Amino acid sequence: MSVFNKTQFTLKRKRKLLPTLPPEEMTPEDRANANDKNDSDKELNEEIIPAPVLPDKMPTYFHIGVLAKECLVNGYKIGAWHFDCTTDIGDNLALYSFATGKPQFKTVFGGVGAREYLGNLSLTQVWMTDGLVGMVGLENELYGGTANTLLRAAYEQNDRSGVKVELHSGYEVTPFKFHMIIPVLREPKLMGYVLLNPFKQYLLAYRAVYDIENKGFDKHAIGLGFYNGSTEWSLKLENFEDLRGSVFQRLGDRFAIAAKVNCYKSEEKQYAIGAQVTLFENVIIKAKYRHDGFFGMVYQQTLNDNIAIMYHFGFAIKDPFKGDHKFGLSWSMRA
């Protein structure tokens, strides 16, 4: 997982940061990094950690509880190793390459990509070891807000169904935002969210996933988030029966604690508690304990503006020597 938090394709133009892809538009590599393969599909999209909110932009549904996810999720999902490099060529063109060994050292996955901005138009092509992804996006000012549309086509070698196409469409004008993913070809689900930011400290959102083939909703989710600069809490009610929540609390300038709980009606409760400390301006050490008795630590450091590293290790508390172990490292570079 990139320790630059998925901002690899953010470019500077006219003294303004261009927006990165929202979580729903990530490539399969990004989505794979959201969770380990052993994690349930129910959690997959919820554990996505979005890029920081850009100036003059609104947050997304996935920014609800983002600080707790940064503390308790980011870095712990690294496979055995990960490397990525972004190269800016001028103001409007970027090249990106990545490789990762996940879940095992020899299970290699990777690819290269390019993105170019032509005015309000963006062109993206990603070549991966198991498929291709191409995207064409357009962003325009509309009625005092920003409208965006992106056509995304993907082909996976192991999927015999062929090319899949979906249309992403959204609009935002403070304090309102919505985003939809519309299936065009061989994509079975219609999904999207509506978000309100009525006050600076609060986020309120509704998200839904509709299965077109089965003609029914897979998910309804209502989310509420709060952050006042030192305290963050979030609640998400899914399908009117499953409750998910998190708390993040800063303790001064260097320390913070966090907790995350998932209460599923059909499954046992899942929880994680953890803490983080900022040793220097560029070094953070994190630790967490999970409901299944697994303990992990993450060391992350920004060496300079162009290089960031992250190391992770974890083990089962009940049997630290013979039980499960995890080790991972990640390097992210910009040129």
Question: Characteristics of this structure?
Answer:
mainly beta; Porin; 3 helices; disordered N terminus; 19-stranded mixed barrel; two-stranded antiparallel ribbon
Summarize the structure.
The chain is mainly beta. It has helices at 28-34, 41-44, 66-72; strands at residues 12-13, 16-17, 81-89, 93-101, 108-118, 121-128, 131-142, 145-156, 164-173, 176-185, 189-196, 202-211, 216-227, 231-238, 242-251, 255-263, 270-280, 283-290, 294-302, 307-316, 325-334.
Any overview of this molecule?
With 335 residues, the protein is mainly beta. The chain has one domain (12-334): Porin (Beta Barrel), CATH 2.40.160.10. The protein contains three helices and 21 strands. It has a 19-stranded mixed barrel. Residues 17-44 are annotated as: Disordered. GO terms for molecular function: porin activity; voltage-gated monoatomic anion channel activity. It holds the Pfam family Porin_3.
Helix content: under 10%
Q: Would you tell me which CATH topology applies? A: Porin
Count all strands and give the number. 21
Give the overall shape, derived from the CA principal axes.
globular
InterPro entries: Porin_dom_sf (IPR023614), Porin_Euk (IPR001925), Porin_Euk/Tom40 (IPR027246)
Protein name: Voltage-dependent anion-selective channel protein 3
Family: Belongs to the eukaryotic mitochondrial porin family.
GO cellular component, one term: pore complex
Give the topology, please.
Layout: E1 12-13, E2 16-17, H1 28-34, H2 41-44, H3 66-72, E3 81-89, E4 93-101, E5 108-118, E6 121-128, E7 131-142, E8 145-156, E9 164-173, E10 176-185, E11 189-196, E12 202-211, E13 216-227, E14 231-238, E15 242-251, E16 255-263, E17 270-280, E18 283-290, E19 294-302, E20 307-316, E21 325-334
Parallel strand pairs: 3-21
Antiparallel strand pairs: 1-2, 3-4, 4-5, 5-6, 6-7, 7-8, 8-9, 9-10, 10-11, 11-12, 12-13, 13-14, 14-15, 15-16, 16-17, 17-18, 18-19, 19-20, 20-21
